[in-house]
Amino acid sequence: MKAPAISPCLGVPDTQAACDFYEKLGFTALPGGDDANDDIRILLFEGEFALMVFRDRHLRDWLPVLKDTPVGAFGMFYLAVDDFDAYVEKIRPLVTVTKDTLEHNGQKIFYFTDPNGYVIGVTQKQTW
């Protein structure tokens, strides 16, 4: 598996709860390393790297500059899927809808918020 050029690592209060949530949406959670004290997990989507989740207190210890940063983010992440309509129909009852499906520049987008306040925008896969 090849990691992308930029790999998001989200601080979360409960790594297992975050993994459970994303697994309901079709992700696969893997251990992030061999250290049992390191609570980082790698999440795959359709077999490819998508993001990492890391217990917030461990992340704040790892990078003290984040010690006062709240969980959640100002911004959003995008998840590109093969079949937009089918995926949105599948996850809609499992998520908190932030902004319902809209079309922008010819592309459908559906926004939801995960249990930790991160906003995810679902889009159709495309080639740049």
Can you tell me about this structure?
Pfam families: Glyoxalase. InterPro entries: Glyas_Bleomycin-R_OHBP_Dase, Glyas_Fos-R_dOase_dom, VOC_core. This is VOC domain-containing protein. With about 130 residues, the chain is an alpha/beta fold. β6 and β7 form a beta hairpin. The two termini are about 20 Å apart. The relative contact order is 0.19.
Topology order in helix (H) and strand (E) letters: EHEEEHEHEEE
How are the strands of the largest sheet arranged?
1-4-3-2
Please indicate the percent range of residues in DSSP E strands (runs of 2 or more): 35-45%
The second-level CATH architecture is: Roll
**Gap from first CA to last CA:** 21 Å
Compute the average pLDDT: 89
The proportion of residues forming helix, as a percent range, comes to 10-25%
| Count of helical stretches | 3
Shape: globular
Q: Find the CATH superfamily.
A: 2,3-Dihydroxybiphenyl 1,2-Dioxygenase, domain 1
Q: Kindly give the count of domains.
A: 1
CATH topology: 2,3-Dihydroxybiphenyl 1,2-Dioxygenase, domain 1
The radius of gyration over CA amounts to 15 Å
CATH class descriptor:
Alpha Beta
**Number of DSSP strands?**
8
Largest sheet: 4 strands, mixed
Structural class: alpha/beta
Low-pLDDT residue spans: none
